[in-house]
Amino acid sequence: MPDERDECNCGHLARLAEDSREAVQFDTRLNEYHILRKDGSGYSLIYFCPLCGGRAPKSKRDSLFHRLTEAERHRLTEMTKDLRTVQDVIAALGEPDVKGLKLTITTPAKEGQPETTQAYPAMTYSKLSDTAIINVQVYPNDRVGITFQGKPMLAQQTHEFHMAAGTKRPEPEPPQIDTGKRYDVYCIEPNRQSVVYRNARFKRAAALLPHPGGRMHYPDYVELEQANGRSIFLPRSSIFRFCEPGTAVTTEPA
Ligand SMILES: [Zn+2]
What is the CA radius of gyration of the chain? Predict the structure, then answer.
C-alpha cells in the first residue's frame, strides 16, 4: 500500500520548489507541492517525492474546505433540480450574493478542434447552505448550469475564490492594512521554516502574469518593501502573521 510509505524527508521537493527553473511550487496554505502547467491553467498535485519515493506532506485541503454531506448534497440538488433559466433561479433562490462573475470553462482539444476556453456569466449563492457555495453558470441561451462546491473555512478564501474566477476585486473588507505603516511580517519559506521581515511595508498586491484559464490558481503576491527599501514579492499565502515592529509574539503550543 503506497499510503504506508513514510513521508519524504530528503528535502528534494522543497529544493525543487525553491528552484525558480522548476515548475514545482509549494502551496503553504494547502501544504501541498504542485507541478504547474506550462500554460498556467492549473497544476497537478504531487503525491510522492520523485527522488526518494516518500509521501509528500499531508495535504490540508480537507481542513480548508467544508465537505458536503450526502444529505446536504441531496438537499441542494432537490432545491435546484428544476431550475433551468436565470429567471427560475432568481425566483427560487433570490438575488445572488455575487453577480457578474465570469466562470471560464476550457474544453480540451479533440479531433481537429483546438482547445477552446469560454467565459460564462455566473452567479453565486453562499448563504443557502452552511457548507456549500452554489454556483450558477449562465449559458448564452439563458440556460443555467448549477454546481456546488465546499465552502472555504475562512472568509478570506471566499474572497480569493472570486478573484480567481476572473472578476474584479469586490470592495476590500475593512479593516485594511495601512500601506503607510511598517510591520514585522512572518512568512513560511518553501523549506517550511518561518522567517520574519522586520520593519517592512506592504506596498500593494501583485499578480504573477495574466492567467489564460479561469481555474483556481495560486498564488497571488504581495509586494513588500523591506527595511532596506528594496521590494520583494511574496506569495500572499506564505504570510501567516504580521504585527507592529518589535511586537513580542507570545504564543504557546495549544
Ligand atoms: Zn524525498
Answer: 21
- Percent of the chain at pLDDT > 70 equals 81
228-to-182, 189, 199, 206, 223 alpha-carbon distances in Å: 12, 20, 9, 20, 14
Sorting pLDDT into bands at 50, 70 and 90, what band is 73?
very high
Give the mean pLDDT of the chain: 80
Q: CA-to-CA distance for 64 and 41, rounded, in angstroms? A: 22
Residue at grid coordinates 504542485: 34
Q: Name residues with Cβ closer than 5 Å to ligand 1, which is an ion.
A: 8, 10, 12, 49, 51-52, 54
The ranges assigned to domains in the chain are 2-64, 70-151, 183-243
Task: Calculate how far, in angstroms, residue 195's C-alpha sits from the geometric centre of ligand 1.
Answer: 23
User: In angstroms, rounded to a whole number, what is the distance separating the alpha carbons of residues 89 and 87?
Assistant: 5
CA–CA dist 37, 29 (Å, integer):
19
Q: What's the gap in Å between 4 CA and the centre of ligand 1?
A: 15
Q: How far is the CA of 235 from the centre of ligand 1 (A)?
A: 24
pLDDT in tens, 16-33: 999 999 999 999 888 999
**Rounded Cα–Cα distance for residues 224 and 193 (Å):** 19
